[in-house]
Design a protein that fits this description.
Elements lengths: L1 H27 L2 H29 L4 H30 L3 H7 L1 H111 L1
Helix pairs in contact: 1-2, 1-3, 2-3
Keywords: Coiled coil, Golgi apparatus, Membrane, Protein transport, Transmembrane, Transmembrane helix, Transport
Family: Belongs to the VTI1 family.
Subcellular location: Endomembrane system; Golgi apparatus membrane
Length: 216
């Protein structure tokens, strides 16, 4: 556990060093380059916060002595991270931290106002991004729904055509069945007629033979 915490601490030190570097670059750059360093710093802040959370979870598994020691360290890490976040806000606003310390309270209120304004702007930007994302999801959902409706309509037409063909086949089969039934009836009638004729011929022959025999 201790080695894992030490690994987290080393990673945290490297991340905070990168944050400090990016804050310095924010102060010394402008435009797109400045915004690029701001985005990098924000990602590093997220990474640092995740490392602190992982450290807090691991500290809970330590014995009471080590737990107290690491909890104190984590508190100092959080304080350091908060200070770096304040430094980055000042860097984004173009405020010199050393000049601010020298001027003292005269500029403190103005800086707080600018920091609050920046916080509000960031919240508005995040809300705007969330709204844009929600709008894109809604549009994609609508497109998917339209595609599904088109597919269902196409399938409905296919089913209707299939039903029409089945109906036509039933009608055709019905007609064929009636024709076959008529043919069978005629065949039976013909066979009965032939049988009757055959019986008549047979009776006639028998009678002829009988009368000829009596004459002799």
């Amino acid at each position: 556990m201790a080695s894992l915490l030490q690994n987290f601490e080393q990673q945290y030190s490297a991340v905070t060093a990168d944050i400090t570097f990016n804050i310095g670059r924010i102060s010394n750059t402008t435009g797109a380059e400045k915004q690029n360093h701001v985005r990098q710093a924000e990602k590093l802040f997220e990474e640092a916060s995740e490392l602190l959370e992982q450290m807090e979870l691991e500290v809970k598994e330590q014995d009471s002595k080590d737990r107290q020691k690491y909890q104190t360290r984590i508190k100092s890490y959080k304080a350091e991270l908060n200070k770096q976040q304040a430094d980055m806000k000042r860097a984004r606003l173009g405020i010199d931290a050393n000049r601010d310390e020298l001027l003292g309270d005269d500029t403190h209120d103005s800086e707080d106002q600018r920091v609050r304004l920046l916080d509000n702007t960031e919240r508005v930007e995040r809300s705007s991004r969330k709204l844009d994302q929600g709008y894109r999801i809604a549009v994609e959902t609508e497109e998917i729904g339209s595609q599904i409706m088109e597919d269902l309509h196409s399938q409905r037409q296919t089913i209707q055509r299939s039903r029409g063909r089945l109906h036509d086949m039933d009608t055709t089969l019905g007609k064929s069945s009636r024709v076959l039934s008529g043919m069978m009836k005629r065949i039976i009638q013909n066979r009965i007629m032939l049988l009757g004729i055959g019986l008549i011929i047979l009776v006639t022959v028998i009678l002829a033979i009988y009368f000829m025999a009596r004459r002799r």
